[in-house]
Inverse folding.
């Protein structure tokens, strides 16, 4: 019994040390480049869990090697992506992979249809704001 | 009377008393001695079997290095496995997530109920 308690205690201790080591990324301590990329998340950053922070910081490392268009898309999508639940993200990844496995012409055709629908709905939203 | 003389006197008195001790008292003393020797042997046997009620930490098998070493090893394996698995999982997803974020479709499109209809069309 005493041994089991020791194991449990050590596990908890190591987990908290591990989490602590990862959570040392407050907004104030980010570099200016990281702040620029993650600007859409600035408001929620300090309340974000360490694993999420780690993920976004990983993306900031890749950011400079992206084209300006990709960088602009990331800035647009970053908040939407962050607001999704883990299940919704899983679903989005699955569907992204589905579309990626199609031949390029088919991909283009489908994407155009989707974009058309979303352009229409955004125009509708602009005309009829809440 | 010096110290050695006093010692001799005490020894003589004790020997004299021992000669005059009754048989029943001798028997009781002998059985008491036997009982205490037996209980000492029993506690020694329990200690060697590792279930000693001894609470002295320096002799407790619980704090023995041989017992702690496998525990520490197990702990290290568990922590490294958790660490490795979290990185493995996040690496796989990070790649897709970056592609998704940099994609020309809005994120909500992937959660649209019509998505599968578009795919099948």
């Amino acid at each position: 019994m005493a041994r089991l308690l020791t194991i449990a205690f050590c596990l908890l201790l190591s987990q908290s040390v591990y989490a602590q080591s990862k959570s040392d990324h407050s907004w104030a301590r980010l570099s200016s480049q990281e702040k620029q990329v993650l600007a859409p998340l600035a408001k929620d950053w300090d309340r974000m869990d360490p694993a999420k922070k780690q993920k976004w910081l990983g993306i900031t490392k890749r950011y400079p090697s992206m084209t300006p268009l990709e960088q602009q898309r990331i800035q647009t999508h970053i908040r939407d992506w962050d607001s999704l639940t883990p299940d919704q993200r899983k679903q989005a990844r699955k569907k992204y992979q589905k579309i990626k496995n199609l031949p390029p012409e088919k991909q283009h055709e489908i994407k155009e249809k989707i974009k058309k629908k979303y352009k229409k709905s955004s125009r509708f939203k602009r005309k009829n704001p809440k | 009377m010096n110290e050695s003389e006093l010692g001799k006197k005490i020894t003589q008195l004790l020997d004299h008393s021992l000669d005059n001790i009754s048989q029943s008292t001798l028997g009781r003393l002998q059985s008491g001695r036997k009982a205490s020797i037996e209980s000492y042997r029993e506690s020694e046997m329990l200690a060697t079997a590792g279930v000693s009620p001894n609470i002295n930490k320096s002799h407790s098998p619980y704090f023995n290095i041989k017992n702690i070493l496998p525990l520490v090893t197990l702990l290290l394996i568990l922590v490294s496995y958790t660490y490795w698995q979290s990185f493995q999982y996040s690496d796989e997803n990070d790649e897709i997530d970056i592609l998704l974020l940099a994609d020309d479709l809005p994120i909500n499109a992937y959660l649209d109920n019509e998505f599968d209809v578009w795919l099948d069309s």
Notes: Chain A has one domain: 2-14+37-119. The mean pLDDT of chain A is 82. Chain A touches chain B at residues 2-3, 6-7, 10-11, 14, 18, 51, 54-55, 58-59, 62, 66, 70-71, 73-74, 76-78, 80-81, 84, 88-89, 91-93, 95-100, 102, 110-111, 113-115, 117-118 (CB under 8 Å).
